[in-house]
Every structure is written in C-alpha cells, then in structure tokens.
Amino acid sequence: MSSIIIDELSAADGTLECSVRTSADLERFFTDEPFRTSYDVSIADVPDGVLAIPVLAQICPVAWANGADIYVDEVDATFARALEDVRESLCEMHDFLEGGTLYAKRTIEPDPETTDESGLLFTGGVDSTCSYVRHREEDPTLISIRGWTVTPDPSDDEKWDVLRDRISGFADDRGLETAFVESNMLSFLDHPMLLAHYKRYVDGGWYSSVGHGLGLLGLCAPMAYARGMDDLYVAATHWDGIDLEWGSRPDVDERVRWAGTRCHHDAYELTRQERIDAIADYVRDEESALQLQTCNDRMDGNCGECEKCYRTAVGLRLEGLDPSDHGYPFTDADYHELRAALERGDWVLGEDEYHMWADIRERVRETEPATPAERAFFEWLDDADLDGLVSASEPPLTHRLFWVGARNAPNTVYNAVYPAWTAAKAGLRLVRSDR
Questions:
Q1: Residue 288: Cβ-neighbour burial (10 angstroms; 0-12, 13-18, 19+)
Q2: For residue 207, with 0-12 CB atoms within 10 Å meaning exposed, 13-18 middle and 19 or more buried, which class applies?
Q3: Which of 59, 71, 143, 147 has the fewest beta carbons closer than 10 A?
C-alpha cells in the first residue's frame, strides 16, 4: 500500500524540521533533504498538531496523486477537516488525482489567543498590491515566502535580500509589520520528477497547477498561530468565469483553515485589469509614485522586456498611468517590440496568459488610443489569434524528453542521471504568478 509517514517533528525558536518516510513506490518524488521551514517569530510553544501543517500541506497533493495514505502522530482537527475539503476540490479539478486518507494518532483542538491581526501573502505584484489596497484599513502583516520563485539555494541569497528590503520598505512607509518565511518545500520534494510524471496533465508546473494554494498557506500556519492571526489573505491570480486547473482557487484556498485562522482567496470577483483599476485609484488618491514588482527575471526592479512586464505596462497605460512612474521603462516603441515578440513565440504562454491578454483586449476595445503607436498595437491585438499565440508556445524539446525518460526510468537509473539534470532544473519551474 502506498504511504507517507511524517516523523521526527521538531521546533526550536523559529525553525521547524521533520523527516518523512515513504513506501518504495513514492521514493522518487522525495529527495534526501528533511523538510525545513524557518520563521522570524518563535514557534516553540506552537502545538505539534499545528507544526505538522506545513509539511502536510506539501505532501498531501503528492499522496493524492498516487492514492497514498498519510500517517502523522498529531494534527490540528480543524486542519484535518480542511484537508478533506481541499482533497475533494483538487480531485474534482484534476482527473489524475486519486485521493488518499490522513491517519493521525491524535487530533487536537487548541484555543489560540487571537489578536484581530490579518496577514497578506505579498510580493508587490498586481494581485497582492490590489489586495493590500482593498484591505489596507486592516493594516495587514505582509508575508513573503522564500522557496518558490526565490529558492533556498545560496545562489538566490541576493534575490531574497533584495525582496526583503523592498517589502520591508513598503511596510515601513505604511506602518505595517512583516513576516518572512523560508522553506525548502520544492527541494524537499523532487519537483523535476513530479513534472516528469504529471506535466502532461497540467498547463503549468506541479506547484502552480496543483500544490501552491494549499502549500503556501499551510507554510504560514505556525507563524499565524504564534501571532494570533485571525485572517490570512492570498491574492487571486484568475477571476470569476475562468475555470482553469490551478492550484490556488476559491474552492481550494477558502477551504484552508486551522485553529484560530481562516484563509481567504481575495479579489476573485475582479479581472486583472480591474485590479489595475483599483491600484490606479489608489495611486491617484494616495500614492502617485507607487512602484509595482511583477518581473520574474529580476527582484530589484522590472526588466521591462519580459512578457509579464510588457503586459503590466500595457495594463497601466490602459488605465491612464505612465508605466515609467511605477517601475516599467515603457515607451511607444515598445508596442512594436511586444507585438513582434508575441508573433515570434518568444515566451512560453499558457491558458492563464491567454485570459489575461483577452482581458486586456476587452479593455482595448473600450479605450481611445493616445498615440499612433498605441493605435497600431490596439488594432493588431483586436484581431490577434490569441489561441494561436498560446498553442505555438511549448517547453523545449530537451525538457519534454527528460520528462518522458524520467517517468519510465527505474529509480536507480533516475538517481544516477538526476545530478546532471540539476543545472536545467530552474527551467522546469514554470512559474506564472503576479502575487
């Protein structure tokens, strides 16, 4: 029987660590690293049943993909019920998920002290900035997580330092608190092997398409418990009417909860352009020089040349803002470069990008162009084959060949080949998030 066992759970000051044992058929989905997460608040007094939440949030989707059962000594009863609800949602979303059962020796129902504090997962992108604007009267704690777009590898130390400084500056300017979480959740799991097995079923990567809603929220549980945090917000990527197989959706995130804390999938009723509208109102009313950070290639500003930078700049122009005032070096000449890059298929685009450009196109049809270059781009976009732009984009052949080979290779063969593949590992993390 397929199984995953959580054991040797320990917490010291702000560091959580535990080891995991699996049945032989699941070994390939885990590396030799123990699961680790660190917080900037002490978690020494957090009950073991809450400390188990971060690792459960990472391994449960893997277990459900293989019909495996999970065993843990102690778990928070509220979260155990939440996992049943999330499992139902993910299994309805993804046909390849089989489900599985969580077995705990003990369930607990702690009564944490609450402080009316709220938290917001925050990167400074369009989605999380919109959520801040919507909830700014609550003075939410801004939570940043290292482990996905910024990896725990030492090579990403500088990126993490830049992100911390930027978020801290944003918080200081508004009298907000911050919380920084660091985890090895994607190097504890063998993410390339998960892609090798399941990329054929999903539009993005394993974590983006399956695991990140439950995973990122679950990482925050010990910190939220220690701080007495009542509400935890995660900004929506998509919006009502888009039914994509995505790991963070209302039917996932709204079901995540544990003792003292409920999670919320925020601004799902707004399209991405409408979120930019909300930001633009805030800019005009309160902060004319607000800076956004959406670029996946840089943390110290926006490159201005990737698809996400161009897309955000166009969205700002549509709302009557100058992108250069908000972190994007965009001029009329960039409309030509953007069109050429889209037509060449320079970027790997998925269904979510399709909907975001379709959303922009709807606004374009309602907007009078400000310049000849803008008019030319608007006219092209009005007739562009967005389906063709998405279908023409796909991962490199070398990646696809690796996925097929790894999926069918015995563990001994895969383990021998894997070290040579790590150099390409970053290319396999198809990350599409503005949060």
A1: exposed
A2: buried
A3: 71
Tell me how far apart the alpha carbons of residues 380 and 234 are, in angstroms, rounded to a whole number. Answer: 35
Helices (H) and strands (E) in the chain, counts: 20, 11
CB 39, CB 25: distance < 8 Å: no
377 and 338 Cβ atoms separated by less than 8 Å: yes
Delimit the domains of the chain by residue range.
Answer: 298-346+349-391
Q: Could you write out the DSSP letters of every residue in 278-300?
A: HHHHHHHHT-TT------SS-SS
DSSP string of 357-417, one letter each residue: HHHHHHHHTTS--SSHHHHHHHHHHHH--HHHHHHT----HHHHHHHHHHHHS-HHHHHHH
Q: Which tens digits make up the pLDDT trace of 374-400?
A: 999 999 999 999 988 876 555 554 444
| CB-count exposure of residue 385 (10 Å: 0-12, 13-18, 19+) | exposed
For the stretch 80-130, pLDDT in tens is 999 999 999 999 999 999 999 999 999 999 999 888 899 999 999 999 999
Q: Residue 26 and residue 33: Cα distance in Å, rounded? A: 15
Please determine, for residue 427, whether its predicted confidence score (pLDDT) is greater than 70. Answer: no
Q: How distant, in Å, are the alpha carbons of 47, 133, 141, 282, 379 from that of 275?
A: 38, 10, 20, 11, 24
Q: What is the pLDDT of residue 425?
A: 45
What is residue 242's DSSP assignment?
Answer: -
Count of beta carbons in the 10 Å neighbourhood of residue 311: 20
CA–CA distances in Å: residue 426 to residues 159, 188, 239, 421, 429: 15, 15, 28, 10, 5
User: Smallest Cα–Cα separation from 177: which of 186, 187, 167, 185?
Assistant: 167
Q: Which pair of tokens denotes residue 168?
A: 């801290």
Query: For residue 411, what pLDDT band results from cuts at 50, 70 and 90?
Result: low
Q: What pTM did the predictor assign?
A: 0.89
DSSP 6-35: EEEEEEETTEEEEEEEE-GGGGGGB-SPPE
Instruction: Give dist(CA 435, CA 234) in Å, integer.
Output: 8
Which of 27, 23, 20 is CA-nearest to residue 1? Answer: 23
End-to-end CA distance of the chain: 39
Q: What is the dihedral of CA 87, 88, 94, 100, to 10 degrees?
A: 50
pLDDT of 171-230, one tens digit each?
A: 999 999 999 999 999 999 998 899 999 988 887 789 999 999 999 999 999 999 999 999
